[in-house]
Amino acid sequence: MEKLIALKHKLDAIKTMGTNAKKEALANLDEFEQSMVSLMLNPFIRFGVKKYKVAKPLETSVPSDQKVVELLEKLAARGLMERRGRIYRIIEITNTLKETGDDRIK
Q: What are phi and psi of 68, to 5 degrees?
C-alpha cells in the first residue's frame, strides 16, 4: 500500500493549493495515481460496502497496492456481488493486517 499512502499524502498537500496549482499537481500525477483518483471521485462507481468508522491511516502495511486495487475493482464491477464474498475478501485483508500486529485494525 506504499503507493496509496504516498497518494494520500500528495492529495493532502493538494488540498491547500489554489485552483491552478491543483490542476497542475493533478495533471502531474502518474498513471496509477490518476486511476486511483478517478476511482475515488467517480460518482457512478459503487463498491457496495457500508461506511464504518474510519481507522487512522496506516503507516506500514502488508497488502500490496495491487491487492487493494484488485479488491476495489472487483467491488466496483460487482465481481464480489454476493454479500459473503465481499465480507470474506475484506476480512482476509484485515486479518493480514492483524497478523502484522497493527493494533489499529480491530
A: -65, -45
Cβ contacts of 12 within 8 Å, gap of 6 or more: none
Write out pLDDT tens, residues 38-87.
Answer: 888 888 887 776 777 766 766 665 677 788 788 778 777 765 556 656 66
- Taking the C-alpha atoms of residue 106 and residue 102, their distance in angstroms, rounded to an integer, is 9
* 37 vs 48: CA distance, rounded Å: 18
CB-based contact 58:31 (threshold 8 Å): no
Cβ neighbour number for residue 90 with a 10 Å cutoff: 14
Contact 78/45 with Cβ under 8 angstroms?
Answer: no
Prediction pTM value: 0.48
